[in-house]
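Re: your question from the hallway

Yes, I did run it. Sequences:
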Amino acid sequence: MAGTAAEVAVAPASLGFRRFARRNPTIVIGSALLSVMVLAALLAPWIAGDPFTVAPVNRLRPPNLAAFFTPGTADRFGTDNLGRDVFARTIYGAQVSLLVGISVAFFSTSVGLVIGLAAGYYRAVDAVIMRVMDALMSIPSILLAIALVALTRGGVPVVIFAITVPEIPRVVRLVRAVVLTVRERPFIDAAVSVGSRPRKVIFRHILPNTLAPLIVQATYICASAILTEAGLSFLGAGVPPEIPTWGNMIAQSRLFLSRAPWTVFFPGACLAVVVLAINLVGDGLRDRLDPRLARRMR
Amino acid sequence: MIAYIVRRLLATIPVMILVAVIVFLLVHLAPGDPASVIAGDNATSDQIAAIRAALGLDQPLWRQFLIWVGHILQGDLGTSLFWNTPVAELILQRAEPTISLAATTLLLAVLIAITLGVLAAWKAGSGLDRAVMGLAVTGFSVPVFVVGYLLVFVFAIELRWLPVQGYRPIAEGLWPWFERLILPSIALGLAYVALIARITRTTMLEVLAEDYIRTAEAKGVSTRPMLLRHALKNAAVPIVTIVGIGVALLIGGVVITETVFNIPGIGRLVVDGIARRDYPIIQGVILVFSGIYVLVNLAVDISYTFFDPRVRY
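Structure:
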């Protein structure tokens, strides 16, 4: 195990794509799946039809995958109980999911990084910060998010905030753990003894050591945030129901599961594929960037 | 041993107090005060003021908190705005389905996950190992409700082997009760199995590389006692830890699973509470679930002394 980790770590990136792909199959497969989804989400206005128009005449039409690549096909993934285009709604749903996932990953790692650096470096605030983090971690994250959304009647920004808050303690713990090990290393003593100020020690010498595990953590947070957003929307405590998201689509179609399974299947499958792709990228990055964690998790 | 347990027990008090503070502030610092949320969109300012006085919201924040905590310590979690019934009573009424679901899932998931993890570590690098690891990544990526509806579609709607949804109390017979828990438990347990199997495999791989395992093999201990008594018991601490941490996952999943399978448990209570903005219910359920999570992890900490007598704090 240690051998493969070292081997991966020293492999220069310039050996060509094929070699990279052979050594990091999870990164390549994951990024490929993810790229397709991101592209589809970005190109939604051009490739997908109108996700909102209600057309009762066309309700619950089965999917027509044979005509998938024929331009202008309205029922590639079929239609839902209101006659809305499931394909268009699924593609627009990707926009919300990816936006939430990326935003939560960015905000929770940024905030968690700052708090974690403070907790790890300044002994005076450490105990207080960590007790608050313990308490936050004791509240099941989906319930905390439900409460935040339910009490503020949120839109997408509130959902992002509500999912970010419970993720912060995990980042804080990770960053603090790295800081605690790094601050005992001789180069920190050296920096302090030549007169570097705490701010410089933290940002120049400690921060860079936290980045590799932080990037890995950010991908996992992104995946779990997308799952949580879908769960919140599914429960009616997420993105407002008029916005097409995968969770909303499944919540609105679940009563038609036996007659029109495609209305649940397509958003569900896309959700699973996106989360799987991000987790695969995360696993690959972990193996490359953080061999210590990789050995523990493998 | 007793001193350790007492010390751990005392250490949970500040955490629970902080949880209470967070849950309290959540409701009271949320934009838009609870009184107008409760009163609804068409309320007059007089109605809002009346509700505010009735709930004690005109008092200073710290006093409201102390009154609230005082009530909680007496087992009073407040009164539901919609049902007009004490929240504690509602939670107790709905506890059986939730406990049934959580206990079945926990039992099934731990048994399956540890078996898979041990087998994968024992046959590391084999097809079985790769299959288990594949399941671990996938299981962690597919949301509970997608698995749930997939299972319902295949096993309840198409094959008609199991009921689509619902719950029967255990008093009405073991099979009707269990039959309705099979699909929900699988859906809820999948992510949990993935998590535990992965950790079990990793820890077992480390333990199996130890010298004393080679010694055990050399002196002729057969495979099963070697895996279970020599290796698994020494791998127990990280596994039990992840079982405890994973309970948070389970609790979040219970809320969604109960909605998918229409199980009238505590999860449904909170989901209905969201729709009606019944904030005492939301507050009460969060507090109870957080308390359970803290207690489970306390039990996990204490179990370390059983699995590894060297653990002393």
